[in-house]
Specification:
single chain; 414 residues; alpha/beta; 5-stranded parallel sheet; 19 strands; 33% helix; globular; binds iron/sulfur cluster
Length: 414
């Protein structure tokens, strides 16, 4: 046992993927994760994970588990491969190869942001890296989100406090506007606020876009604060619209996602504007990237025809809910599964490989515990702005998810 520190570790507790964490290891346990927020500290924990291998509820060897898993998956007619959280891109890639071999449906946590992804596919995207936002933004509009809850260091590392080339005084060089939509509130310390009724949100965004484009918008008092905000945005040097693309208090609305994209695009005529969509942790943005470069599609891929096809209306939750899956392979932390996926998984025979797989609530027939990417395994993960980052493991000795999924792939001849 060697006490040590690991500098520049990357946290996957949320999509910020902070890569400035110093992990302090004492007696083979994580004693501290310096610079991490409370959410990040909880994600690192003390680094301990269970090390069980189970087949039908009983302890088994890895060989037995892989044999049982291969038989279960090849015997299925409509298998599903699902990428949960806390995996490196390298492991995600192995799982995609298995889905291809099985002619399976393939989906991931990235599907939780489906409305934003589909809006970008239809309309394009006016985005920026978080580094560019840090350097250039002088007007930050938080659209129905306060990042301090689910993305705690987004403000201190990127959009609010840091000094940048065009924001030499950091927070004092920037203006923050909170757009409150019903109960979805922006930051409490914003410099200005606009309140919208949820029913008026999409129309307000359209009115804002019309204002930016110089079109007449009438004088409906309901929309005047939004119209005034749009005029103010055209006068800024660099606007950032920050919106949450993960499930929250406001149901995901395709029209809303598309209206945010098109407003950001329109603002790039009179000024510069980026839409910053907040993503959750566990390297879900990496799953999006890996599926895209391996199959051509970011989520809801179907290999049933022997080649990848895109079925965004038939994601894992929809397939499981409709009873169209007869076996599943879940790779990654089962604890990160969205409820509409986790609950129906209990009705099919499944294999789980990943951190705390043996504790999965859907009771997999085969469960293989592994380490967690970023703590026990290296590799690559993607930040919410699609920037790839290296993972620097601080603890060794746990079973590797990459090696385990690769071994299953070998068993399947993929
Ligand atoms: S903001 Fe997110 S990535 Fe950064 S330390 Fe906190 S949980 Fe981890």
């Amino acid at each position: 046992m060697t006490d040590r520190t690991v500098a520049n570790a990357t946290c996957l507790g949320c999509g910020c993927a902070c890569d400035d964490i110093t992990v302090v290891v004492k007696q083979d346990r994580i004693a501290d994760a310096r610079n991490a927020c409370a959410l990040g500290a909880a994600w690192f924990g003390d680094g301990t994970v269970p090390t069980e291998t189970r087949v039908n509820g009983r302890s088994a060897s890895l060989e037995q588990a892989l044999t049982e898993a291969a038989g279960l998956l090849t015997g299925a007619t409509h298998p599903l491969v699902y990428l949960a959280g806390d995996l490196s891109c390298e492991t995600q890639r192995e799982a995609v190869a298995i889905a291809d071999r099985l002619h399976a449906a393939l989906d991931s946590l990235a599907a939780t942001a489906a409305t934003a992804v589909l809006a970008a596919q239809r309309r394009g995207r006016a985005g920026a890296t978080l580094g560019e936002i840090r350097q250039r933004a002088d007007l930050v509009v938080f659209w129905a989100v306060d990042p301090s809850t689910r993305y705690p260091r987004y403000g201190s590392r990127y959009a609010v406090e840091p000094r940048g080339v065009a924001a030499p005084q950091g927070r004092n060089s920037r203006t923050l506007i909170a757009v409150d939509v019903g109960e979805a509130l922006g930051p409490a310390d914003a410099d200005g606020r606009v309140a919208l009724a949820p029913a008026d949100e999409v129309d307000s965004l359209e009115m804002m876009r019309a204002t930016v484009q110089g079109r007449a918008v009438g004088k409906d008092a309901r929309f005047q604060p939004a119209v005034d905000l749009a005029r103010r945005m055209t006068e800024a040097r660099y606007v950032v619209i920050v919106a949450d693309s993960e499930p929250g208090p406001v149901p995901a609305d395709p029209a809303r996602a598309e209206a945010l994209v098109t407003l950001a695009q329109a603002l790039n005529s009179p000024t510069r504007c980026a839409l910053s969509t907040l993503r959750g942790g566990g390297n879900r943005s990496g799953a999006d990237a890996v599926l895209t470069w391996q199959t051509g599609f970011p989520f809801a891929v179907d290999f049933a025809r022997g080649y990848p096809s895109y079925r965004p209306q038939a994601d894992a939750a929809a397939l499981l809910g409709a009873g169209e899956v007869d076996a599943a392979l879940v790779v990654g932390s089962p604890a990160t599964l969205p409820e509409p996926v986790a609950t129906p998984l209990a009705r099919v025979r499944s294999v789980a490989i990943g951190p705390r797989a043996s504790a999965a609530t859907f009771r997999p027939a085969v469960a293989v515990d592994t380490g967690r990417a970023g703590i026990h395994e290296g590799g690559t993960a993607f930040r919410m702005d699609d920037v790839p980052l290296p993972l620097r493991p601080s603890l060794a000795g746990e079973r590797s998810a990459l090696d385990t999924v690769h071994a299953l792939r070998d068993r399947l001849g993929a």
